[in-house]
Please model this.
Amino acid sequence: MPLFNKFNPRLSDLHLWEITESEEELVSSLNLSASSNSRLNKLKSIIQRKQFLGIQNLLKLLNFETDDLLYDSYGKPKLLNGQCISISHSFDYCGIAVSEFKIGMDIEKLRPKILNISKKFVSNSELKLIKEYSVRNITKVWTIKEAVFKAFGYPGIDFKKNIIIETLNKEFDKVRVKVFKNEIIEHYNIEIIDFSQYICSVAKLEK
Model:
């Protein structure tokens, strides 16, 4: 079911769906195009199929057709009308963020195994910023960097070296990030929501 602005009314660009329906229920309200049906049929996992259908339902609620969703040469999603879109899913939740400007989002379920790979994407300076080394905080860092990576839109980015958390607030739900590749440098403001054992970060280009 859709969860429009349930968690943070300021994030009007963010639209989440909690996947409580069966695959049959999710598909019943849709009129999938041939290309969307082809993509669905390539998915073998039930949860992946339901996540795909959840995204399609969100697009429908926002009055988009299934063929309005396109992908650029880097594999980044975009909309036919020129708006920016970001897509994410994790277990029982999926979501999209839509904006006139560059935007990225990421959802992750809290899982202890993320601590095993934290050295690959968290720098020493960032560890000092977040202070508490916990599954929740490290998951926040991952979703922040994944959201920024999606918004930035260029491949070949090292999450530890090229995406840098510069500042964060006391509650660790607002963050400013610098991302760069060669001479391209951008700054993003991130808002984080924490719900039902999930973390979701939304990154917006600083104007």
